[in-house]
Amino acid sequence: MHAKIDELKKIRVGAVSYLNTKPLLYGVKRSAALMERTDLLEEYPSRIAQMLVDGTIDVGLVPVAVIPKLKEWHIVSDYCIGAVRPVASVCLFSEVPIEQVEKVLLDYQSRSSVNLAKILLKHHWKQAPVLEDGRQDYREHIKGTTAGVVIGDRALEQRKISPYVYDLAGEWISFTGLPFMFAAWVSNKPLPEDYLQLFNQANAVGLQHLDAVIAENPYDVYDLHTYYTQNIDYIVTEEKRQGLAKFLELLKTV
Ligand SMILES: C=C(O[C@@H]1C=C(C(=O)O)C=C[C@H]1O)C(=O)O
Fold first, then answer.
1. Could you tell me the distance, in angstroms and rounded to a whole number, from the CA of residue 115 to the centre of ligand 1?
2. For residue 229, what are the contacts with CB-CB under 8 A and spacing of at least 6?
3. Which of 63, 111, 225, 238 pairs with 152 at a CA distance of 20 to 30 A?
4. C-alpha to C-alpha distance for 190 and 139, rounded to whole angstroms
5. Which residue's C-alpha comes closest to atom 14 of ligand 1?
6. Could you give the domains of the chain?
7. Is 237 within 8 Å of 181 (Cβ atoms)?
8. Distance 90 CA to ligand 1 centre (A)
9. Which is it for the CA torsion 58, 64, 70, 71, positive or negative?
10. pLDDT recorded at residue 9
11. What Å distances lie between residue 113 and 2, 57, 202, CA to CA?
12. Ligand 1 neighbourhood includes 81 CB (under 6 angstroms)
């Protein structure tokens, strides 16, 4: 037996640890053929982004805002975390209307949405509040004229707390007429074609079995069927690629 080192090495995959990613991971975790070749870890998005930049993972469901920081990148799957309508879990939360906001706290777990907020503030709302990186407890400080960008499961909770909820996917769509891609499966090196094919097929399984995914992840804060079918849009389309190109262009202005 003279298997090449590369064939023995497992592929290190980093995935987002939020509810939005459960449908994509459902089939991945159930595929024995895939799992025997995979080291899978789940973390919040800004950590996954850093790991792909540092090379501690080979492929990750990374915030697209990290793409310009990668020496080499390949979108390796037809599945992503995107939106063609309001997304529900990426919002600017506030106690006052946007025009009265003086400071915005930015989610430390995000890379795409915090930059999306900067782009929308500058070009869409034309507002220039002070921007501050949020610490672990920053949600407690979303009060008065201090607003906050929150993503993921914590945003679904924050919807019940803040009176003003600006959905950043909805705002992006009205601003550009294009859908948004928050995160995509991106590799920092070429990966074996047969592996990627299995991986892509496995991503589809949970989307075809949403009731099983929901049963496995009981959640009473927000209706997950609505979230998975009306809010998050999982398919990489030509329009989403156009949205991504527009986002990467505007990213240079903030
Ligand atoms: C829609 C979402 O998309 C996410 C937003 C990300 C970001 O802002 O960097 C990264 C990954 C996605 O999980 C969400 O988390 O609610």
1. 11
2. 210
3. 238
4. 39
5. 152
6. 5-83+179-236+243-251 (3.40.190.10), 90-176 (3.40.190.10)
7. no
8. 7
9. positive
10. 86
11. 47, 22, 27
12. yes
* ipTM rounded to 2 decimals: 0.97
pTM of the entire structure?
0.95
Residues, the chain: 254
Query: How many angstroms separate the CA atoms of 58 and 10, rounded?
Result: 10
Count Cβ atoms below 10 Å from residue 81 Cβ, excluding itself. Answer: 27
3-state DSSP of the chain: CCCCHHHHCCEEEEEECCHHHHHHHHHHHHCHHHHCCEEEEEECHHHHHHHHHHCCCCEEEEEHHHHHHCCCCEEEEEEEEEECCCCCCEEEEECCCHHHCCEEEECCCCCHHHHHHHHHHHHHCCCCCEEEECCCCHHHHCCCCEEEEEECHHHHHHCCCCCEEEEHHHHHHHHHCCCEEEEEEEECCCCCHHHHHHHHHHHHHHHHCHHHHHHHCCCCCCCHHHHHHHHCEEECCHHHHHHHHHHHHHHCCC
CA of 58 to the centre of ligand 1 (A): 20
What residue owns the CA closest to ligand 1's atom 15?
Answer: 152
